[in-house]
From TrEMBL:
Ranges of residues in domain Superoxide dismutase copper/zinc binding: 93-205
Signal peptide boundaries: 1-25
Source organism of the structure: Streptomyces malaysiensis subsp. samsunensis
Top-rank lineage group of the source organism: Bacteria
Name of this chain's protein: Superoxide dismutase family protein
Tagged with keyword Nucleotide-binding: no
Family: Belongs to the Cu-Zn superoxide dismutase family.
Length: 209
């Protein structure tokens, strides 16, 4: 799937859901979009996105992130009640990221983290987990995996562009997911290294719902 097709699909998904919304009390909006350029980390207080390593993520780079919540709370008063009583949507969350202007031909480990971006790379806290690992930091593949966390690893092309998408069968707990962190290396999957991806080179604030 090309980037353009993926974005078109994400937007079309949004459009069709919006059209299906009857004129009743509006449930929480199920979409979040963020489009930003990376600022120096010192500007973290006011910046939407910051870089901690300008050789991999220069300040000329930009990022687009979309979140779509499907089913569950936000959809209760929508299709289901309108005649087709048995119609049910799968509950879940779709997250899409597109990046441009990064280091070329480089594999970045990317995940949803719990805290907002800050002046320090560690400000963004640990990964968001649907089922929290009682042992933190979590490196157990039973918890640190792309079904229990949102992973969006990207390999940039020779022009420094790349994109990724993730679908999980759950939704973020309100107010517990605040950022997308870009790491220097590919995300590990083996015991003791699961979810680890090396230094945090950039961070994007996203008000996940
Ligand atoms: Cu991470």
């Amino acid at each position: 799937m090309s980037l353009v097709k993926a974005v078109t699909a994400a937007v079309a998904m949004g459009a069709s859901m919006a059209i299906a919304t009857p004129a009743v009390a509006a449930p929480p909006h199920p979409f979040v979009f963020v489009h930003d350029r990376f600022q120096p980390a010192a500007q973290a207080k006011s910046a939407g996105a910051v870089t901690y390593d300008k050789s991999l993520v220069p300040t000329s780079a930009s990022v687009f992130i979309a979140e779509a919540r499907v089913g569950g709370k936000g959809m209760k008063n929508r299709e289901g009640a309108q005649g087709h009583g048995q119609y049910k949507m799968h509950k879940g969350t779709f997250v899409f990221i597109s990046l441009r202007g990064l280091a070329r031909n480089h594999h970045f480990g990317i995940h949803v983290h719990t805290k907002p971006c800050g002046t320090k790379p560690d400000s963004s806290g640990p990964h968001y987990q649907n089922k929290p690992d009682p042992k933190q930091p979590s490196t157990n593949p039973k918890y640190a995996n792309p079904h229990n966390e949102v992973w969006l690893d990207v390999t940039t092309n020779k022009a420094g562009k790349g994109w990724a998408k993730s679908w999980v069968k759950w939704q973020f707990r309100s107010g517990e997911a605040h950022s997308v962190v870009i790491h220097k290396n590919a995300t590990g999957t083996t015991s003791g290294k699961a979810g680890q991806a090396g230094a945090r080179v950039a961070c994007v604030n996203v008000p996940f719902k």
